[in-house]
Fold these 2 entries.
Entry 1:
Amino acid sequence: RNAAPYYDWAFRYAKSYKDKLAFKVAFQLVKGSDWEAEDYRNKQQIGILSKVVGGNRQNDPGYNGINVYGDETSADMAGFSYYVQDQTRRGVLAATGGLLDVVNAANAYFGVPGNPALPGAIGMNPYPTTAQIAGFIGALPAPLQATVQQMMPFYIGLNRGYFNKATVSRTGYNEENLVDYNTLNVKGTAAVHYKFSDRFEVSVATYLGSGTTVYTGADRYSLRNLKIGQHKFEAKAKNWMFRAYTTQENAGEAYNASALGAYLNEAYRPSSVWFPTYIGTFSEGRRLNGSAASDMTLHAAARASADIGRYIPGTRSFDSVAAIIKKTPIRKGGALFLDRSDLYSTEVQGNLSELMKFSKFVEVIGGASWKQWVMNSQGTIFADTANRIRVNEYGLFLQAKKAFGKNERFTITASGRYDKQTNFNGRFTPRITGVLKTAKTQFLRLSYQSAYRFPSNQNQYISLVTGSGVLMGCLPGFQSYYRLNSTLPGYTAASVLAYRSGNLGDSSRLVRASYNDVTPEKVYSYEVGYKAVIADRLLIDAYYYYSKYQDFLVSAAVVQRSEEAHV
C-alpha cells in the first residue's frame, strides 16, 4: 500500500504519598492505516482445506479469490443439474401416481444408449432444436408441461455433456470494498496501591481499551469499536498472594467480511435463483450456438445474465444494503457478532513452610485457582442461542523443595498439579527435578515433567458460519445438533472430491467421517543437562531432552449435504 501516517500518543502520570499511598494513570492512542489485503490469486477450497491454484475470473468460472468474498458460494454445474432433474422427476412421479418417469421418457426421446426409443425420437443429436424440445413437452400432460420446460436446460446440459465437470462460483467483492482499513486503538489504565507495611500491600487496577482493525482467523473479520476491560484486586504479603480479576469484552460493531460478501449476493439475488439462471443460460447458449462458441464465452454470458441487479461498490444501494447486513447478527442472516463474553478469576498462593514454621526442613509452596468463562455471543460465535454458556476450571498445586548433603550438593524439587474443567475429567500432572553440584561451578540436572491442555472454549463451543462453511465445536453434542450421527451424516473431504470427479449419483465413493471423543492434549518430557563455568572464562550449558506428545487437537473438514441439495 502507499505510505500513510502512523500516530502514537501516550501519557502517564504517577505519584506516591509518604511511601504509603500511590496511584498512576496512563493513556495511549494509536492511529494508522492497516495493511490492505490485495492477494487475488485463485484458490481451491473445500471446507477448511485450501490451496492456491492457477486461474482468475476471466478463465475459471469457479474462481475463488483469496481476498475476494462472496465467491466462496459455488456449485458443480453437472451436480446442480442432476439435482434439478432429480427433483423434477420425483415431482412428476408423485403427480402421476408413479405412472410417468419423465427422465426415462426424455432419455428415450432424446436418445440414450440402452433405452427404448419413443415414436418420433430424435436420437443422439448433440444440439436439439427448440422445436424438438417443444415436441417432447407437448406430448406430456398439460399440467406438467411448465415444470418440465424449466427442467429441460439442466437435463439437456447433463444429457449432452455440456458442462465439462465445471464448477461455477458467485461473483464476489474485493476485501477493500467490505472492511475499514483505518485503525484506531485507545487504551487507558488507572491503579491505586496502598502499603500497610513493608510486608503487606493492596492494589486495585483497571484497564480499558477500544479499537478498530482487521483480523485474520478462519476468515477475515472487521473489528469495529471493539471494547475490552479488565479490573483487578491484588493483595501481596511476604509469604502469600491473593489476586482476583475479571475481563469483560464487547465485540462492538465487529463483523465477518466473508459473510458480508455472501449476504450482499443473496440480497440482490438468492443463490436458489442465481445458479439456475447461470446454468440454464449456459446450457441454452451451448444448445443454440453448438460448437461455434467457446466455453468461456458462454460462461461470460451466463454470468452477465445471473449478475443483473448486482450491487456495485460505491453506489448508494450497495452502501445501504451493506449497512443493514453489518447490523444484522450472523445467525439471523447478517455478518454482525454480538459477543459480550466475560472471564472471572481468583488465585491464591503461599509459602506454606514459612507460614507453618517448618522452612528449615523443607520449602513447600502451594496454591489454588478458579476461573469461570461466561460466553455470551447470542449464537453469533458460540452455540449459546438459548442461554449463556458457563465453563468452570479449578486448579490446585503443591511444590516441595529439599536440599541434601554437605553444602547442599543435591537439591530435589517435586510438584504436582490437579486441574478440573466443566466438560473434562480432572487431570494430575507431576513434575520432578534434581540438581547435583559436582564442583563449585559445575552442575548436573535431571528432570521429568508432564503437562496437558484442555481444549479452548472455541475448540469446545464454536458454532460459527464462515465463507468456507461452519466451524463447529468438538463436544459430542454437536454431532446431534448438526445431525451428523443421524439423518445428515458427514463425509471426509477427500471422498467428496472423489465423488464429484466420478459418476454423479455413485455414492460408493463417499466415506463417512468418524467422530472420536476429544481428550486434553498431553506432553511428557525428560531432560538431562550440564552447566559449568571453566576457569572463569568458558561457560558450558548443554542439555538433551525428549518429549512425547499425545492427543493433538486438529481440525478436520467434513462435508454434509443440505436437506435441499446434493453433496
Note: The chain has a mean pLDDT of 91.
Entry 2:
Amino acid sequence: MPLDKSIQKVLVIGSGPIVIGQAAEFDYAGAQACRVLKDAGINVVLCNSNPATIMTDQAMADEIYLEPLTVETVKRIIKKERPDSILAGLGGQTGLTLAMQLDKEGFLQAQGVRLLGTDAAAISRAEDRELFKEAMAEIGQPVIASDIAETVDQALAVAERIGYPVIVRPAFTLGGAGGGAAKDPEELKIIAGTGLDASPITQILVEKAIFGWKEIEFETMRDSVGNVIAVCSMENLDPVGVHTGDSIVVAPTQTLANKEYQMLRTAALDIITALEIEGGCNVQFALNPDSYEYAVIEVNPRVSRSSALASKATGYPIAKVAAKIALGYHLDEIPNAVTGKTTACFEPTLDYCVLKIPRLPFDKFTTASRTLGTQMKATGEVMAIANSFEGALMKAIRSLELNVRALKLDKLEGLYTDEIEDLLVQVTDERLFVVAEALRRGFSPQKINHITKMDIWFLEGFQRIIDMENELERCKGVPSADTLKRAKEMCFADSYIGTLCGMKQAEVKALREKYGIVPSFKMVDTCAAEFDAETPYYYSSYDGENEAVETSDRKKVLVLGSGPIRIGQGIEFDYCSVHSVWAFKRMGFETIIINNNPETVSTDFDVADKLYFEPLTAEDVQNIVEQEKPWGAVVQFGGQTAIKLAKALTEMGVQILGTSADGVDAA
C-alpha cells in the first residue's frame, strides 16, 4: 500500500531529558522518524524539551517546540498547529504515556487527530498489567503467576496467595522505576508503597519471582496487513532478576537449542499479531534452563531501549521502518537501505556475535549501592562486534571508559578465595570481573553456574579467555605465531598481551606484523553476505579477508565519537559529532566515524560515509588509521573520550583539525 495521502501534518513527541531508562536511543529513533516524514513530504511538528538532542535541531522538523512534555503543553500545540496525526511510539515511555492520556480524555478524537502506528487499544493491552494478562490468556501464552494491586494491603494479599519471593512491577513506569524484589511481607510493604507512588495510575503487578531462569528478548516488527518478522533475538548473561538495561546482552541468542529458539520466536510473533501492533515491538521471555517451560515477562508496544541495540547489531533500521509502517507502507514495500536489493520483510541474519555491556555510574557515585535488581541504574551502554563471544567481550570491556583492558580488576587480586566466593553471590556491576577472578582461582564453570545461574556456555567462554591469559604468561617473552594469532582472534589488546608476556606494546605490534597477523574489517550487511551491502559499516577481525574497500578518491576526515553515555558526557557530544560530519560532507570530504555507542545518531549506518564500530582506544583507532589513511581527524566534538586521543593521533602522523594536541594539553 503506498503512502497514506491523508497524512499531511504530523506531531512527533520526543522523550524529554535523559533519565535512567530513557537515554539517547529515543533521540536516535525520533531523528530517524523525522527524516522519514520529511522525505515523504510531510509537515513535521516536533515537541521535545531536550536541547542536547539532534532531534530538536532545525534540520529535523518544520516547527520545533522546546516545551515541557505535559498534557497541557501538547494540547496547546495541537490547537495551534492543527496536525492531522500524532506519532508517539518513538518518544519512549514519555511520548507513549502522553499520547495515551490525550486519547483517554477524548482530546485527540475531538481535535480530529489520529494516532499513527499502533492504536491506543493495542497499547493499553500491552501496557496495562491486567489487560495484558487477559490478552496472553486468550492466545494461550503463559505468564508468571501474578496479580494487580492498587494498595499495599492488596499487594500483601497477592503475595500471600502466590508465595514469596515476589517482584513488584509498577504500571507505566520507566526502567523498572519503583519496582523491586521482596522476600517477606516487611520488604513488600516498602517496595509496594514505592511502586504505587511511582506508577502514574497507582497500579503495581505483584509477580512470583523466578530467579535463575534465562531472560530472552525478541525485537519484532509488524505492519498493518499482518506481515511480521523477528528482527533480532537477544540473550541476557544475567538470569531473571536483573533489569535487562543493566544486564550484559548478547545477540543473537547463543545458548538456546533450535527447538527453544523456534518456540520463543513463534510465541513473540503470535503475541505481536494478537496485540495488533503496527511497527516495532519488544517481547521479553523467561525460560526455565532445565525444561521447555517459559513465561512472557512483558511487551513494549513501541520502539524501546533494546530497539537501538537490535538496529545497530543487525543493520536493520527499526525506527525508520516503524515510521514508514505508520505512514501506511507494508514491510514488503520498504527497501532494505543496507543491501538496496532486499525489502524490510527479509529477516536479518548475523554471522558474527554482538555484545552490549551497560555503563553504570558507580565511578561517580562511589558510596551508592552497586547491587543490581529489577530497577535500572545504567546511564548508557557500549556495543562490540566480533567473530566470537570472547572477542566481543574483550572489545566491549575496552570500550567502557573505565581504564580496564581485560577481565581483570586489580582490587580483586588481593582478596582471599573465600571472599571471591562471597562476592559471586552478590549481583553487582563488578560480577563480570569476579567471575573471571574465580576462574583464575580454579573455580569450575559448573561451580560458578551453581552460584550465579549464568549459563555454562558463557562461563566456558570466560574460561577460554583465562586460559589464553595463562598461555601468554607462560611464553615468558616472545609468543609463537599460533598463540599470538589466537589471542588477537579473541581481541586481546597488544598492550595487554605485552603485559602478560613481558613485552612493550610496540614490540607486540611489530611481532604480529612480522607474522602477518593484521586486522581486517568485516561488513555488517543484515544478510550474512548473501547480498552485497551498499552501506559501509565495519568491525575489526583477525581472520583474513578485508571488506573495507576504497569508496572514493576524496580527502578523508576521521571524526571520533564520544563512547557510552555517562555522568558528565551525554548526547550533546553526539549532536556535535553528527553536525561536524554533515558539514564535512557538504564541503566534499569523505567522512569516517569511529564510535561504540549503539544508542546514538552517529552510529546510524547512513550518517557518515563509513562507520567503524570499535573501542575508542589508541590501539583500536590506529588500526583504522592504517586502513583508511585519513587526511585529518577531529577530536573536539567527541568529549573527553576523543580529546584523550589527540596526542596518540598526532604520533600516528594524523593532523588534528582545529585545536592541536599541544593546545589541548595546554588547556
Note: The radius of gyration is 25 Å.
